Amino acid sequence: MPGMSIDWIDHVVLPVRSLDEASASFERLGLRLTPVTRHQGLGTENRAIFVGDGTNDFFIELLGIHDQAASLATGRGALYQQAIDAGRGVARLMLGTEGIAGTVESLRAKGTDVAVEGVSREDGVKLCDVAPLEGVAGLGLTAGLVQYTQPRAESHARRAADGRFGHTFPLKRLDHLAAMAPMLDEATAAWADSLGIAVSGEVRGPGIIIRQLKIGDAVLELLGPDGPESRLHGRPGGMASMCAFEVPDIDAAVALAREHGFTCPDANSGVLPGTRVTTIPAAELAGMGLQLLQYV
Fold first, then answer.
1. What is the pLDDT of residues 204-241, one digit of tens each?
2. 119 within a domain of the structure (yes/no)
3. Given 127, 161, 195, which residue is the final one in a domain?
4. For the purposes of burial, counting CB atoms within 10 Å of the CB of 101, is it exposed (0-12), middle (13-18) or buried (19 or more)?
């Protein structure tokens, strides 16, 4: 698709009522977080958890609201406040691009109104450009594009030098995210037709159809019911409040999570063939489940 460039899954936004309390739960697990950054004119502040090896960097953005009036004056602020009030967990998916201008131009040519907005730190240093994708019909979730002022390789080197990947809990890489898609055929068509991201695979389990959209090194799973008797039938669409990370040794990861006081069941065979999985519950990590996955 000429001009279209969606290159990787960059991050998810997890709005939290208390940035300090949310951060403490991830730190207790053994994950390193960035210092607090405030965003100029947006009324928000964040801390981030980075995972990756430079070719597949991804982060979880813990997002707090320090100035509600300023935040609610923006479109995103209202979304984040609603997510906090409803205890919804993950509220937005951000997709990385090396060509935001061309991608936005392509979307406009297809009749979708998309605007590019700059995001800066409180001291005025520009961080990135973002383009909300709420105007793209049929995606079934809240998403946006992001392009940073610094190239990815330089960003990884800077973050690595700052110790951002120095976790004691062994997350290797983001494997997948998931979203509920009650109208599965319509959603997969929208991703292909509007964003140029076609289905790369399909997995079926009891009561569920999983359409896989490979974006960079990770996968966005669209989960739909396989019929009216499915456990997913009638569930609303939108992002699942979960991130699935590959780990090198899932049994060791389970033991470590338990040692740090988290509820972590023994690993079992996953829906994806050739995997073993377990999940640290969302209630123990600021409203976001942490699925651990090992390929065997």
1. 988 999 999 999 999 999 999 988 888 888 888 899 99
2. yes
3. 161
4. middle
Same domain, 13 and 154: yes
pTM > 0.90: yes
- 204's enclosing H/E stretch is strand 201-205
What region, left, alpha or beta, does residue 101 occupy, with left being phi > 0 and alpha being psi -120 to 50 degrees?
Answer: alpha
Tokens, residue 39: 């965003």
Of residues 23, 20, 44, 22, the one with CA closest to residue 32: 23
CATH assignment at residue 245 = 3.10.180.10
Instruction: Read off the amino acid at residue 157.
Output: A
Q: Domain residues for 184?
A: 173-295
**If you ran DSSP here, which 8-state letter would residue 250 be given?**
H
pLDDT digits 0-9 by tens, 89-105: 999 999 999 999 999 99
Q: What is the mean pLDDT of the chain?
A: 94
- Residue 200 falls inside a structural domain: yes
Q: Is the pLDDT of residue 60 over 70?
A: yes
- pLDDT over 90 (residue 258): yes
How many domains are contained in the chain?
2
Helices (H), the chain: 19-29, 68-72, 75-86, 100-109, 152-161, 184-195, 250-259
How does residue 2 score in pLDDT terms, banded at 50, 70 and 90? low
Burial 262-287 (b: 16+ CB within 10 A, else e): bebeebeebebeebbbbbbebebbbb
Residue corresponding to tokens 């951060």: 23
Last residue within a domain, chosen from 161, 186, 214: 161
Q: What torsion, rounded to 10 degrees, do the Cα atoms 70, 76, 79, 83 define? A: -80
